Amino acid sequence: LKMASDSPESLMTLCTDYCLRNLEGTLCYLLDNETLRLHPDIFLPSEICDKLVNEYVELVKTDSIFEPHESFFTLFSDPRSTRLARIHLREHIVQDQDLEAIRKQDLIELYLTNCEKLTAKSLQTLVSFSHTLISLSLFGCCNIFYEEENPGGCEDDCLVNPTRQVLVKDFTFEGFSRLRFLNLGRLIEGVNVETLLRPLASLAALDLSGIQLNDVGFLTQWKDSLVSLVLYNMDLSEEHIQVIAQLRKLRHLDISRDHLSSYYKFKLTRRVLNLFVENLVNLTSLDISGHTMLENCTIPSMEEKMGQTSIEPAKSSIAPFRGLKRPLQFLGLFETSLCRLTHIPAYKVSGDKNEEQVLNAIEAYTEHRPEITSRAINLLFDIARIERCSQLLRALQLVITALKCHKDDKNIQVTGSAALFYLTNSEYRMEQSVKLRRQVIQVVLNGMESYQEVTVQRNCCLTLCNFSIPEELEFQYRRVNELLLNILNQSRQDESIQRIAVHLCNALVCQVDNDHKEAVGKMGFVMTMLKLIQKKLADKTCDQVMEFSWSALWNITDETPDNCEMFLNYSGMKLFLECLKEFPEKQELHRNMLGLLGNVAEVKELRPQLMTSQFISVFSNLLESKADGIEVSYNACGVLSHIMFDGPEAWGICEPHREEVVKRMWAAIQSWDINSRRNINYRSFEPILRLLPQGISPVSQHWATWALYNLVSVYPDKYCPLLIKEGGIPLLKNMIKMASARQETKEMARKVIEHCSNFKEENMDTSR
Fold first, then answer.
1. Final residue of a domain: which of 586, 610, 634?
2. pLDDT for residue 1 is more than 60
3. Taking Cα atoms as reference points, which of 141, 102, 103 lies closest to residue 119?
4. How many Å apart are CA 683 and CA 706, to the nearest integer?
5. Whole-angstrom distance, CA of residue 615 vs CA of residue 612
6. Which of 391, 448, 480, 506 counts the highest number of beta carbons within 10 A?
7. 662 within a domain of the structure (yes/no)
8. What is the pLDDT of residues 168-204, one digit of tens each?
9. Is 486 within a domain?
């Protein structure tokens, strides 16, 4: 079965995304090299324009690579070429001039959420939409009722008395004849809500979240039309309850509160709930989350536990709800004791009793109540950590949405990133689509970008470890590397984050093509790793960070001459010698360092820098090392093999003698077990194969042949096809004919050819 979340994006979504990322190449041209203008022959209906604007806001908010355009909203200034109807604008993305640019549009729906940059200038722009607007949200637009007032008259005076903000008190919704749905959540104190709303003839939905009103009697003017009322975090009184009970058309009532935000005198009683049930007969949704019950609203404990769980009102564990005609569609009981009862007469309940209730809470409160959402996600984190999540896809989607929606909310970023770590671990992997996992990676990187806070950084890095690296991160390759290097370049570092970040860096440069490695090298990767090594050396510490850093350098220099040169230019050899001296027993470290120097030695132009008595002596002595099996000895011999390949005339040192080193190399190779299992991974044999067709250094030829023989013997499935593909067999055959090649080298070459021949025969397709 194909998962819903795995369905491809619609053509409309793909085209919108492409056009927004390439406005100049598609819908627009640049006027005077700075202002975007729509091509004159374009006409776009509201279905397309709405999508362009809403998607633009989303991209600016969640995609750090996406560049916002100052003149974007001017593209929609003329209704003859672009039509807007329903738009959702958020946060700092929208300013007064943006709304002003679209004032000629006949907007039906305008949602402005947390648009703190909007001032009273935008109130005047709203009047332009008054004749068509049906739905309006000004949630969290805390400055929209403020205008700038300059008390002085001249410029000099302005410097002494900077611009003050003055509350606008004369604005009302006069003339908004079609307005039915209005959200004034978190309206600034001082605005007279009753006066503001009085001109509205027939409101259907009103949200007054976070507004303190002692008198709400004016709400009764809409008792025949109001179907939805939200009074979240309003300090209620008996007068409020009596007014609400008169709004008999209500289908949705939300009187919930955040029980942590402040002290509330009001307590919900059995009588109040009875009053709602008796008077609000159309009610399908009720939210009383966060309330303390003054008296017992529940039925006796023995009766409560009897029978199978039921949503029938007659069996309700909450006594007042036995009077309901039918179960509620939604009942908000988050952070109340009632959510833990057995029989709750609602199809959907928000609470903290189980996974279903917690997910319902995240779903219901994410957009406008991050303070509640972060606590709900924290509960989900515990469920994912301790139990098994049964609604994984839903849980992931909800956490992703919350993280996207509240990119700058520290609590949500901390709890959300922690939950993602558990929701993406290996036991859940089979249930997740590529598309969903990419969404997770995007929000994780957003979190890393927005927050230098230790907990968020650690959670994000740990979550990335749940992915196949580099494959699953390749679509964001540059960005993830930049973020990790940024973490590692900070002066004060958390040890655990440093360790995870270095591990990720190492994994990211392992098994990727050379273009990627070169790009990451240019970002400062080599320098960053060497700085980490320098710091560990100063502390006389050889830990995972030290070993991972050398391993990362080994990987990033593989067949990448530019990075090898950077290693030498940034005193890499000095650090190599110091580490060798300081940590003589650290086998893993020696292997990583010698592997890296093998890569450097493969670059002909850089080999002269290795030709010093000190370096050659060190490599020669390491031929006898038994560290990490044969790996250190093997890599030291590899370095010397490439140096020998340049011939006697390139041997520009007196000590040690070239012949003496050659002798030690033969002895080392003959001491290795041909069946040794290897701690190495070749993507290409090219650097080894170039040592075969030459007679200047038979020992280099022998090392190369031994390497091939070992790899095709121990790992035939991987290395026989690679050797055949890269043209190794003809090179080996030609070498056998060479007079300068040693007999034992020729024997070994014949065995390599035989191994590959047998492998080909065994794997031939004989099906007809």
1. 610
2. no
3. 141
4. 18
5. 5
6. 448
7. yes
8. 888 999 999 999 999 999 998 889 999 999 999 999 9
9. yes
Same domain, residue pair 588 and 666: no
Q: Are 493 and 554 within one domain?
A: yes
CATH number of residue 696's parent domain: 1.25.10
Neighbours of 157 (CB within 10 A): 11
| Half-sphere exposure at residue 585, Cβ-oriented, CA atoms within 13 angstroms | 1
Question: Do 551 and 640 belong together in one domain?
Answer: no
- pTM: predicted TM-score of the whole model, two decimal places: 0.87
Assess whether 485 and 571 both reside in one domain. yes
- 160 pLDDT band (50/70/90 cuts)? very low
Burial of 416 (0-12, 13-18, 19+ CB in 10 A): buried
Task: Name which of 50, 69, 52 is nearest 110 in CA terms.
Answer: 50
Q: How many domains does the chain have?
A: 3
Kind plus residue range of the DSSP H or E element containing 146: strand 146-149
Task: Give the DSSP letter string of 452-465.
Answer: --HHHHHHHHHHHT
DSSP assignment letter at 331: E
How much of the chain exceeds pLDDT 90, in percent?
76
Confidence band of 764 (pLDDT split at 50, 70, 90): low
Q: Residue 505: give its domain's CATH number.
A: 1.25.10.10
- State whether residue 268 is helix, strand or coil: strand
Mean pLDDT confidence for 142-147: 92
Q: What residues make up the domain containing 715?
A: 620-767
pLDDT, residue 164, reads 67
* 708 within a domain of the structure (yes/no): yes
Write down the mean pLDDT value for the chain: 91
Q: Is there a single domain that holds both residue 661 and residue 751? A: yes
pLDDT at 161 over 50: no
Report the C-alpha gap between 306 and 312 in whole angstroms: 14
Q: Give residue 154's pLDDT band: very low, low, confident or very high (50, 70, 90).
A: very low
The 10 Å Cβ neighbour count of residue 574 is 12
Kindly state whether residues 557 and 652 are assigned to the same domain. Answer: no
Q: Is the pLDDT of residue 768 over 50?
A: no
| Pure H helices in 352-433 | 355-365, 370-386, 392-405, 410-423
Domain match, 570 and 659 both: no
